[in-house]
Design goal:
The complex is a heterodimer of chains A (286) and B (171). By secondary structure, chain A is mainly alpha-helical. Helices cover 60% and strands 0% of the residues of chain A. Classes of the chains: A mainly alpha (286), B alpha/beta (171).
């Protein structure tokens, strides 16, 4: 396999078809593992945050829909963790449950709490934030999956094609909520605008690949982050135009870059709750 | 010669046996439809007393997958022809609702689930009520009690019902 030169110009397209072939080049394998953690950790934590809404969504149909979407998303996380397991990184369950916050590579937007309280005690969750977060993420994920379908690592390219199909209904769902709440005016609009601001303040790492970006794109695992982010902003702009709202000027990483392991205490708390049963008996079969 | 080799049947006969066994493995959430009729079977590979089955998951997050894997292994071991059974899910094939067989569509309806619409017309659906056959139905929720199902309502016989959610390569 050829490595890219330091300026990142195109290299011969070499397809890596198996985990064994990926392991032949340590730099390739390391970049691949890093990217797979970004993808799996994103889906894992956002599916968890979605599942916390169970029984609390605005109406019963939404409860069913959101639960179903979160279940699909957890399935995607499991598949990406499985790709890591195939590379010898560790068993799926321990990758999902036993890693500390500092080891996680998810984007910070996806880990933030749904609102004050917990799902058991006085949940004052913010539905506007849920709609904005899941809508923005679904668009970003779809763009990534389409890009990954040309990944140099074949198992990842094939997995992305699978995930992409399942995103169709997720996208339709969140787009409907987003457009309707944005068009509703009054409190809905005010809260949506606040949620958009919050999302833009933290979502700067959604398309970041962190400190291994050079190798991740250099080995043609996925396209450059700037190109993908540009597509994301274009799509958002079209939707924002339709509801008469200006795209915020800047994407920030106010709470850190999750790709480099920078996270909030929200993630630490989530991990301690979600992995409680796993830690109780790590050897148990699920 | 071991006992297993002694009773070994020719591969083409073994294949028929395996297929028959696979037809007996039902979707735990739709017990009238076999995994073959759901279009989940990708490949059967037989090598002496070893059989390898590859299955295509319907939805990646489907919680029934582990149960299906277990039931498939049990059904194949019960044949008594194999000492080694390997059932695995593959991710390099895409499951779409076009893979559901004619028999599968009938069985879905029998269970009270409308089969998936064959064509998406302008993104819309045309689903007949599985109970009275009326086309006068409305979509209540794209998402249903299982990843592969949606909830609809029949305005003719006033029954809520479920339909298999159309999944296509065009999405």
């Amino acid at each position: 396999m050829k490595r890219k030169s330091c300026h990142g110009e195109a290299v011969d397209a070499v397809q890596i078809k198996t985990p064994e072939a990926a392991a032949e080049n340590l730099n390739y394998k390391e970049a691949l593992i890093n990217l797979l953690f970004q993808l799996s950790d994103d889906d894992f934590i956002v599916a968890y945050r979605g599942s916390e809404w169970l029984g609390l969504a605005p109406h019963i149909e939404e409860d069913v829909a959101f639960a179903s979407i979160s279940q699909d998303t957890m399935g995607h996380a499991a598949m990406f963790y499985k790709l890591l397991e195939d590379l010898g990184v560790g068993p799926v369950d321990s990758l999902a449950h036993a890693r500390t916050a500092a080891e996680r590579k998810n984007a910070v937007l996806l880990e933030l709490v749904n609102g004050p309280g917990t799902y058991i005690k006085e949940p004052q969750y913010d539905w506007a934030f849920a709609v904005v977060r899941h809508y923005f993420y679904t668009i970003a994920k779809k763009i990534k999956m389409v890009a990954l379908m040309s990944s140099s690592y074949s198992p990842l390219a094939e997995a992305a094609a699978r995930v992409n199909i399942e995103l169709y209904y997720h996208h339709l769902h969140w787009k409907t909520w987003f457009s309707q709440l944005m068009s509703a005016g009054g409190e809905a609009r005010t809260r949506m605008e606040a949620a958009i601001k919050k999302a833009f303040d933290t979502a700067g790492d959604l398309f970041s690949y962190g400190n291994m970006a050079g190798d991740i794109t250099g080995f043609n695992l996925i396209d450059e982050s700037s190109a993908l982010q540009e597509k994301w902003l274009e799509q958002l702009k079209m939707v924002f135009d339709s509801v008469d709202f200006a795209l915020p000027e800047q994407l920030g990483i106010k709470m850190g870059n999750g790709r480099d392991g920078q996270h909030t205490k929200d993630l630490e708390e989530a991990l301690s709750v979600l992995s409680e049963v796993y830690r109780f008996d790590p050897a148990a079969a699920w | 010669m071991t006992a297993v080799e002694a009773k070994k049947v020719p591969d083409n006969l073994a294949r028929d046996l395996v297929l028959k066994a696979l037809y007996s493995v039902m979707d735990p959430e739709i017990p009238s439809v076999s995994i073959v009729d759901l279009g989940m079977l990708h490949d059967i590979s037989i090598d002496g007393s070893r059989v390898e089955i590859s299955l295509i998951p319907t939805f990646l997050g489907c919680p029934a997958l582990d149960i299906i894997k277990g039931n498939t292994e049990k059904a194949l071991m019960a044949l008594g022809e194999f000492t080694e059974v390997d059932v695995r899910f593959i991710y390099n094939q895409i499951w779409t609702t076009d893979r559901v067989t004619e028999e599968g569509r009938l069985r879905l309806k029998e269970f009270g689930i409308a089969p998936p619409p064959r064509e998406l017309k302008d993104g819309g659906w045309e689903v007949d009520c599985p109970f009275c056959g009326s086309p006068y139905t409305t979509l209540d929720n794209i998402f249903g009690p299982a990843a592969c199902r949606s909830i609809l309502y029949c305005r003719s016989c006033k029954n809520p019902f479920e339909a298999m959610k159309p999944v296509s390569n065009l999405m």
